[in-house]
Specification:
Length: 420
């Protein structure tokens, strides 16, 4: 179920110190997840987690994860710059992107990052933008449906990512001719999957494919990158992924295909690492009764887009009212001029009054990161609850000057005091 690790007193104190809305992250919870993942894969002599920067691109969080032994998975040049600024370099960085400009390949090559090629045409780009190194990684798309048992978990054939199996063989032969000696294999076949069998099933597919490609090409296997996709329980009725069971399932698949060992394992978890350890804290500002009962917050889809974009569920609690009966039904909304700007639709909650502190759970991944400025709304602050219980602002809230900074302002706007 959603993470209730923090008491209401923590949210009250944070809201006393900082104006709402803001995202609050728990340092201790993030560190514990990083350590739990390391423990689950401790059987592998060469295991490394590459945190998906896109999930939570904040330097304070990235530095915490570096202290816990993690690398970074970057998907743009800006994320590469962020990684470099936080002290990551070389094999601590995995660059996984698609349809990117040549300059981004060149930047990743300059940093000595692992480059995860998404398409066979990228080989030529890599050759002319930094050259083909001794180790190169390719992203595999097996096509069709991805199943765990009889249940379909994803549709790789509909995804824009990765090489086909014939392209992998042709691509690795071409890379070998250009000087590559070892290869990594990567695939992402299901998103936010809480089934403990997801990673082991994916691992078995990648292990067997890599073993066959080694025989067909004569190249050594450097690593298998299981990517992300391990999910979190957003809904109260959902069970939490058992990361130790996941690690053990991958180990069994590994020993079946690579009993001799020698193949490294990499992961690129984002949501699982930080998602449960973030909360969007807001105040109820409006109460409206028409055909439905509405509660308006000082937050909006600018702060958390997932419900508006995907219809995603995020659990909501009201500070001080956790134990009260959920006997009122509300649409919980933001203030954007879009009818999909709703955090919850017909949600049973305790009675909410204007001024109540409302907490939206599990926003520590793809929350702030997906923010935008529609309607001229400004993105909120990010606050870290440090391991010692103190609070630290790790990103200030945007101000109007930030919104106007990239615009050419005319004299009238400048007269109103709106300047760069």
């Amino acid at each position: 179920m959603p993470n209730f690790a923090l008491s209401d007193d923590v949210f009250r104190e944070a809201a006393r110190l900082y104006p709402t809305p803001f995202h609050l992250y728990d340092e201790q919870g993030i560190r514990e997840n990083a350590r739990a993942l390391q423990h689950a894969f401790a059987w592998c002599d060469d295991f490394k987690e590459y945190f998906a920067v896109k999930a939570l691109p904040n330097p304070a969080i990235l530095r915490i994860l570096r202290e816990e032994g993690c690398g970074l998975d970057c998907s743009s040049e800006t994320e590469l710059m962020l990684a470099e600024a936080c002290g990551f370099s070389g094999g601590e960085i995995m660059f996984s992107a698609n349809a990117m400009p040549d300059s981004e390949f060149a930047h990743a090559a300059r940093l000595g990052a692992y480059i995860n090629l998404d398409d066979i045409t990228h080989i030529d780009i890599l050759r002319r933008c930094g050259g083909v190194g001794e180790t190169v990684c390719c992203r595999y798309n097996p096509g069709g449906d991805f199943r765990i048992g009889t249940e379909i978990m994803g549709n790789p054939g509909e995804a824009k990512y990765g090489f086909t199996r014939p392209q992998l063989l042709a691509g690795l032969k071409e890379l070998k001719a250009l000087g590559a000696r070892r290869f990594g294999l990567h695939a992402f076949l299901s998103s936010n999957n809480t089934d403990d069998a997801y990673y082991p099933t994916l691992a078995g597919l990648l292990f067997e494919t890599a073993r066959d490609l080694r025989q067909e090409t004569g190249m050594d296997i450097a690593f298998i990158n299981l990517s992300g996709g391990v999910g979190i329980p957003y809904r109260p009725e959902q069970r939490k992924t058992d990361i130790d069971a996941v690690g053990e399932g991958v180990r069994r698949a590994y020993m079946r295909v690579f009993p001799e060992g020698g193949v490294a394992i990499k992961t690129e978890l984002g949501r699982w690492m930080t998602g449960p350890n973030g909360w969007l804290v807001s105040h109820a500002t409006h109460h409206k009764d028409t055909y439905r009962h509405y509660i308006g917050l000082d937050a909006s889809a600018v702060n958390l887009m997932r419900p508006a974009m995907y219809g995603a569920y995020h659990h909501i609690t009201v500070v001080g009212k956790r134990d009260m009966p959920c006997d009122h039904v509300y649409d919980v909304t933001g203030c954007l001029c879009e009818n999909n700007d709703k955090f919850a639709i017909q949600r049973a909650l305790p009675e909410i009054q204007e001024g109540d502190l409302v907490v939206i759970h599990d926003t520590g991944a793809h929350g702030f990161a997906m923010g935008y400025n529609y309607n001229g709304r400004l993105r909120s602050a990010e606050i870290l609850r440090c391991a010692d219980g103190s609070f630290r602002m790790i990103r200030r809230a945007e101000e109007p000057k930030d919104y106007f900074a990239t615009l050419d302002m005319d004299e009238a706007a400048q007269a109103l005091g709106v300047t760069r």
